[in-house]
Give the backbone structure.
Amino acid sequence: MKTTPASIAVACSALALASSSSCQAFAPAFTSASSTAVRTTPLHAATTGESTTTSSDSPSGTSPLNSLDSFDVHAGERLPWYEGGYSTWKWSGRKGGEKGHYSINYLELGDKSKPSLLLIHGFGASAYHFRHNIPELAKDYHVYAFDLLGFGLSDKPLEDYSAEVWRDQALDFIDEVIGKPTIVAGNSLGGFTSLYATAHSGDDGREDLIKGCVLLNAAGRFRDPDAPAESSAEPNAVIETIKEWIQRAVIRASFIYTKQPARIEQVLRQVYPVSDANVDAELVESIRVPSLDPNAAEVFYRVIAKNGSGPSVYVDDLLAKLGGGKPILLAWGESDPWIRPQAADKIQALYPQSRRVSIDAGHCPHDEDPNAVNKAILDFANEVHGL
């Protein structure tokens, strides 16, 4: 929404440093990610004591390693953090890319015979950020979550990043891994990715597998009717080179500073303004560990430098493309210091069919007040599925 300039990107770098991907601001780069993704045998299987993925239905027929095999969704515990990841999906990424080129960390939990939910994290976070949501939602749904490319424990290639990359990653994941009608829910960058994927589900001959969309303080920007026309003048090569050098130095310095555990915790507490009780050592570690990847600092620079002005596509256009054809829920943290409630107001004005549930929380309502968000998602999903 309008809170997506480079200044916010740097401000939320403590949430981003772990995965070195893009913040609430992200711009065009990849324009045609392919749908040629392939699934590989999970490194770890997620089970609930009900009917879930097993060695017999893994593509290669080999037994997965144990990580969530003994996890009981009915025990009332949060998802455990595994530094080595959960499962791996091989994704080809851009059109014409090498098959199985990128390793994407993901997990699934719940009875696979039940309807599915896909949770998409925000800038700098990972699938683990839904640690308090996945177990509760998995009691009634087959729940998936993945790390976006450049984030968490997924690969961090030295390439350009754009909203189209993550949109197509989500669509390919639904096609190739989930393979059935799904409700998507995302926070911040993940919220924009969810909306972007929902608007394009069914394009290019795909089966439309997205049944509804949940926005948890989603990022993005709106059209400004009063904005001046952009200049078409050619940029000065010398000035652009100096500008890039300064940006690289400043952003890399910011990355080094913000990846310190104490700084991560400090910034997290700022965006959990109502209750910071869930800002704990495991959450900090889930952000810190991916920042140790050799490519992390460079990817962080590329994302921030390229995407500071926001995505090339506007929220207005995505909502117009939907044309009221998909149900949308806004589960909005009303005390968000970065994406203000006025963004949700505007979405409601542009998409009157949307529903809103106000959450007494900040930028990450799903982790700050998981009980309220879980109830909102379950109520919405049950209605969408007619349950």
DSSP finds 13 helices and ten strands in the chain. The chain has a mean pLDDT of 79. The beta strands are 44-46, 65-68, 87-91, 102-109, 116-120, 142-146, 182-187, 210-216, 328-333, 355-359.
